[in-house]
């Protein structure tokens, strides 16, 4: 019997691998192991519990203020022991996290084949997103099978002379989104109760922001834009604030005390799906939400200078607005006041 191992450490990885793990677990011809490194432990378990997935191994590497160097070395060391013990025929990694890169490297060291889910994304900017852009470039050199979401991602790999075992498969985040939305809408009461602080007669703007490359002045600018929007429009703004101190400090400093800005703790995945479903506009620097929101008909303003997910930009469902507070404000204003502009993006 062939053995496969799914190894991941963050919430986005868990979300995007969940539909695939559920499929593999049904196979009688494969032994499937689910291994979490614990890079974002609490957030990962929220996802696994929601999708009824139980990890076989938890490497528990997480520690306060963990650095990229620590995540890399801890993953290399602990994953290596697991691979030597399990000897899987194939290791699945997802996306562009430090866990994914370190796992792919460890599998290579142990001469185990690597399958890369969501391969081929490129921003062509070494430091944006950081460190994800270089992580995915390096994973591409290590992987044996490349599962790309789009034709453009395939072209990116071809340009790097990676042409074997490249498969266009779409994006598993959309599978996960609709599995979750179906569960949520079948029993919406817990979510309605949780968000009862929102005025349902007002338009809801969901904000998510946590990118490392925006830490410092760019992140402050994002907060100033949100503040100006809150003060000038009759809307409800919900911001689940990432746990990183580099995010929380400017967010709470600039946005605390505004009546229509709700700063809340990070949401469990189904609650985030419900909030996306109910939102009018989404402001984000997240990768996954750039793909999820258009599938729900929600215009997305991407608060980054570049994005590796250009399909949404080309299709007009998402727009790059960077971290310039005036640009963010003007684009939100246009969507709130111009129904034609909103409809064009939403569709």
Number of strands: 13
Terminal-residue CA separation:
46 Å
CATH topology of the largest domain: Rossmann fold
The CATH superfamily of the largest domain bears the name Glycogen Phosphorylase B
Report the sheet-strand fraction.
Answer: 15-25%
Protein described:
- With 347 residues, the protein is α/β, with parallel strands linked by helices.
- The chain folds into two domains: 169 residues, Glycogen Phosphorylase B (Rossmann fold, 3-Layer(aba) Sandwich); 159 residues, 3-Layer(aba) Sandwich (Rossmann fold).
- Helices cover 49% and strands 17% of the residues.
- The protein contains 15 helices and 13 strands.
- The strands form two sheets. It has a seven-stranded parallel sheet, with helices on both faces.
- It is globular and about 60 Å long.
- The N and C termini lie far apart (46 Å).
Q: Topology of this protein?
A:
Layout: E1 2-8, H1 11-25, E2 30-36, H2 41-50, E3 57-58, H3 68-86, E4 90-94, H4 98-109, E5 113-117, H5 132-142, E6 145-148, H6 151-159, E7 166-168, H7 172-186, H8 189-194, E8 203-208, H9 217-232, E9 235-240, H10 245-255, E10 261-264, H11 269-278, E11 281-284, H12 288-295, E12 300-302, H13 310-315, E13 318-320, H14 325-337, H15 339-346
Parallel strand pairs: 1-2, 1-4, 2-3, 4-5, 5-6, 6-7, 8-9, 8-11, 9-10, 11-12, 12-13
Helix pairs in contact: 1-2, 1-7, 3-4, 4-5, 7-11, 9-10, 9-14
């Amino acid at each position: 019997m062939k053995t496969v191992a799914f190894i991941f450490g963050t919430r986005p990885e868990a979300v995007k691998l969940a539909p695939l793990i559920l499929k593999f677990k049904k196979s009688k011809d494969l032994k499937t192991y689910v291994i979490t490194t614990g890079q974002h432990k609490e957030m990962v378990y929220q996802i696994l519990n929601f999708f009824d997935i139980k990890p076989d191994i938890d490497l528990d590497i997480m520690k306060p203020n963990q650095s990229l160097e620590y995540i890399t070395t801890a993953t290399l060391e602990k994953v290596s022991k697991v691979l030597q013990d399990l000897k899987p025929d194939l290791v699945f990694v997802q996306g562009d996290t430090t866990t994914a890169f370190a796992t792919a490297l460890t599998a290579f060291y142990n001469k185990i084949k690597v399958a890369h889910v969501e391969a081929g994304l490129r921003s062509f900017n070494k430091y944006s997103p950081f460190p994800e852009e270089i992580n995915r470039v390096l994973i591409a050199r290590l992987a044996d099978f490349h599962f790309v979401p789009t034709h453009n991602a395939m072209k990116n790999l071809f340009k790097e002379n990676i042409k074997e075992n490249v498969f266009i498969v779409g994006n598993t985040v959309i599978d996960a989104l609709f599995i979750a939305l179906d569960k949520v809408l079948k029993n919406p009461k817990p979510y309605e109760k949780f968000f009862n602080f929102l005025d349902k007669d007002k338009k809801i703007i969901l904000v998510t922001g946590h990118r490392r490359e925006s830490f410092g002045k760019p992140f402050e600018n994002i907060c100033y834009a949100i503040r100006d929007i809150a003060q000038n429009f009759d809307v409800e703004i919900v911001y689940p604030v990432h746990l990183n101190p580099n995010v929380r400090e400017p967010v709470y400093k600039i946005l605390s005390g505004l009546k229509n800005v709700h700063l809340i703790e990070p949401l469990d995945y189904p609650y985030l799906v419900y909030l996306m479903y109910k939102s009018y506009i989404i402001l984000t620097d997240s990768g996954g939400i750039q793909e999820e929101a258009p599938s729900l008909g929600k215009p997305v303003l991407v608060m980054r200078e570049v994005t590796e997910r250009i399909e949404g930009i080309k299709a007009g469902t998402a727009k790059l607005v960077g971290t310039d507070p005036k640009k963010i404000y003007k684009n939100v204003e246009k969507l709130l006041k111009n129904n034609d502009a909103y409809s064009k993006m939403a569709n």
